[in-house]
């Protein structure tokens, strides 16, 4: 038994954790060999004294003590090995978040010592975790573009994890459901407009030869690919034929009107060519051709004289003159109801088209009356000024023709989008849909929104499709600023303020609505 007690003392001395730490991590050293000798000596003596049964019980007890000893000496003896194990476990995290730069800039030795001290003081589970990089540190490093992309990816992944779509996803979904028009629907609407235009052209040639008009042409948002939603709008341009020797275009800003973006059409050479030499002389007001008088003649000669119910029945549509708007006295339009061919089970007339009749006068770039296309040396490709019969309103403005920059603005937007594969036209359709969905924003017409887009395009920012949400929010912020100042210059005519005709109360109401939605722009998206 004394041998057994001596063996136990040797085992306890050899199994102390302090000595095991000094000898290293291998358990097959001198301490393990001494323990094995002690166990063999104890078991040999126990067989003589206790017999076979006692020796078996003693062996089982000794095995239990040995397992306790193994657990005691299994604590890592080298803290540096634990740090390496921690780094090995943290490898999957480095793909998404690398170590901060301040951990690797000449602090290798101090970092190792600090990690050794932490491994001695903290539990093993805490030592496995490494410091992760915060998103703010990424923006301060040299490769800022890569880190910005990582931050956007993290935001999108966060929205996926939370189950709520991001603003980019909401805008794209809204465009797909409520803004984009299927090509088949657009083609059918254009064909309906062409059918109605053919009837108008035939009527003008047979019944109203006294009105010298050039060949009409189609235009408008649907024709330009800028329509938003199922509100189809097309314009039928009726160019007036004016004699170049009898008429002169005068900029309104050079007269007493002082109205930028408008023109006067003055009748000249009355001493050589008296009144009546031109078919439009009967529509003069104070020596100038009146757009209001031209509109009234066309309304009486086209909308009121033609038998639209019979014409619509022959075409398979319902055609009727649109009601005159008090806000736009010069508005001439037809409403056409037709059946959507893509819905072959539905026999109802469920689609509506607004066909606006727009009298206009074309000028050369220098401001002279342009001859009809194909006459003289004038080229088709030469840029022309377009004057439309839309007086600005107010007393004394019946003779003012508004210059339309629509063709130039649409062409410039298309050129910019084709250059950088941008989303400007998509953003324009989004803004038009938002303005139509809110009665408060009804005064934000397409002319205002086009100039807003063009001014924003002058800024050196990315206009790709992936940046639609950012550009949409920036457009809202820019629009709020313009409404607050009450100033939005036309892009191709900076002297003209597009917000001049809107009252201060209406500007404040629109600005408040948009400003309240800056925190959550998705609240503006309505069907």
Description:
The chain has 527 residues and is an alpha+beta fold. The chain has 4 domains: 72 residues, no CATH class; 31 residues; 236 residues, Beta Polymerase, domain 2 (2-Layer Sandwich), CATH 3.30.460; 120 residues, Poly(a)-polymerase, middle domain, CATH 1.10.1410. The protein contains 19 helices and 11 strands. The strands form 2 sheets. Strands 1, 2, 3, 4, 7, 8, 9, 10 and 11 form a 9-stranded mixed beta sheet that branches. A two-stranded antiparallel ribbon has the order 5-6. Strand 5 and strand 6 form a beta hairpin. Helix 10 packs across helix 16, helix 15 packs across helix 17 and helix 16 runs antiparallel to helix 17. The protein is elongated, with a radius of gyration of 42 Å.
Describe how the helices and strands are arranged:
Elements: H1 2-14, H2 17-23, H3 30-73, H4 79-89, H5 91-94, H6 108-121, H7 124-128, H8 135-138, H9 144-162, H10 167-179, H11 183-207, E1 217-219, H12 221-224, E2 232-239, E3 247-251, E4 262-267, E5 284-285, E6 288-289, H13 291-303, H14 308-315, E7 318-321, E8 333-338, E9 351-363, E10 385-388, E11 401-404, H15 406-420, H16 424-437, H17 446-457, H18 468-485, H19 504-516
Parallel strand pairs: 2-9
Antiparallel strand pairs: 1-2, 3-4, 4-11, 5-6, 7-8, 8-9, 9-10, 10-11
Question: Can you tell me the CATH topology of the largest domain?
Answer: Beta Polymerase, domain 2
Strand content: 5-15%
- Structural class call reads alpha+beta
Rounded Rg? 42 Å
- CATH architecture of the largest domain, by name, is 2-Layer Sandwich
Low-confidence stretches: 1-29, 77-161, 377-381
By CATH reckoning, the class of the largest domain would read Alpha Beta
Number of domains: 4
Q: Quick one: biggest sheet? A: 9 strands, mixed
Distance between the termini: 94 Å
Mean pLDDT: 76
- What string, H for helix and E for strand, traces the elements in order? HHHHHHHHHHHEHEEEEEHHEEEEEHHHHH
């Amino acid at each position: 038994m004394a041998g057994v007690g001596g063996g136990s003392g040797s085992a306890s001395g050899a199994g102390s954790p302090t000595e095991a730490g000094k000898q290293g991590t291998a358990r097959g050293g001198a301490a393990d060999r001494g323990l094995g000798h002690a166990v063999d000596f104890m078991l040999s003596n126990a067989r003589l004294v206790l017999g076979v049964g006692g020796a078996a019980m003693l062996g089982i007890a000794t095995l239990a003590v040995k397992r306790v000893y193994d657990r005691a000496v299994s604590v890592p003896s080298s803290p540096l090995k634990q740090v390496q194990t921690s780094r090995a476990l943290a490898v999957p995290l480095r793909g998404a978040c690398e170590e901060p730069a301040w951990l690797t800039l000449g602090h290798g030795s101090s970092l190792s010592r600090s990690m050794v001290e932490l491994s001695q003081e903290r539990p093993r589970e805490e030592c496995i975790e490494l410091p992760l990089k915060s998103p703010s540190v990424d923006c301060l490093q040299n490769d800022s573009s890569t880190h910005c992309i990582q931050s956007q990816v993290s935001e999108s992944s966060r929205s996926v994890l939370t189950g709520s779509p991001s603003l980019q996803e909401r805008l794209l979904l809204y465009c797909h459901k409520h803004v984009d028009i299927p090509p088949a629907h657009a083609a059918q609407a254009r064909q309906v407009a062409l059918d109605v235009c053919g009837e108008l052209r035939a009527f003008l040639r047979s019944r109203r030869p006294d009105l010298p008009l050039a060949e009409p042409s189609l235009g408008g948002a649907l024709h330009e690919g800028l329509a938003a939603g199922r509100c189809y709008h097309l314009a039928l341009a009726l160019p007036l034929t004016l004699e170049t020797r009898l008429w002169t275009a005068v900029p309104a800003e050079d007269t007493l009107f002082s109205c930028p973006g408008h023109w006067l059409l003055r009748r000249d050479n009355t001493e050589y060519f008296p009144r009546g030499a031109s078919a439009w002389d009967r529509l003069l007001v104070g020596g100038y051709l009146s757009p209001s008088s031209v509109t009234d003649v066309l309304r009486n000669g086209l909308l009121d004289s033609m038998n639209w119910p019979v014409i619509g029945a022959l075409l398979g549509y319902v055609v009727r003159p649109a009601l005159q708007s008090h806000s736009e006295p010069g508005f001439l339009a037809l409403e056409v109801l037709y059946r959507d061919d893509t819905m072959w089970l539905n026999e109802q007339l469920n689609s509506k088209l607004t066909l606006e009749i727009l009298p206009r006068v074309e000028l050369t770039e220098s401001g002279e009356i342009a001859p009809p296309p194909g006459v003289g040396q004038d080229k088709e490709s030469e840029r022309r000024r377009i004057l439309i019969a839309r007086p600005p309103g107010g007393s004394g403005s019946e003779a003012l023709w508004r210059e339309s920059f629509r063709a130039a603005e649409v062409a410039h937007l298309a050129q910019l989008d084709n250059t950088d594969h941008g989303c400007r036209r998509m953003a324009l359709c989004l803004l038009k849909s938002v303005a139509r969905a809110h009665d408060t924003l009804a005064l934000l017409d397409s002319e205002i929104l086009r100039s807003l887009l063009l001014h924003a395009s002058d800024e050196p920012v990315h206009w790709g499709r992936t940046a639609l949400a950012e550009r949409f929010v920036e457009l809202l912020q820019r629009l709020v600023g313009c409404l607050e100042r009450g100033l939005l210059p036309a892009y191709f005519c900076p002297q003209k303020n597009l917000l001049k005709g809107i009252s201060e109360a209406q500007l404040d109401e629109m600005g408040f609505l948009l400003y309240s939605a800056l925190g959550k722009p998705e609240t503006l998206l309505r069907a």
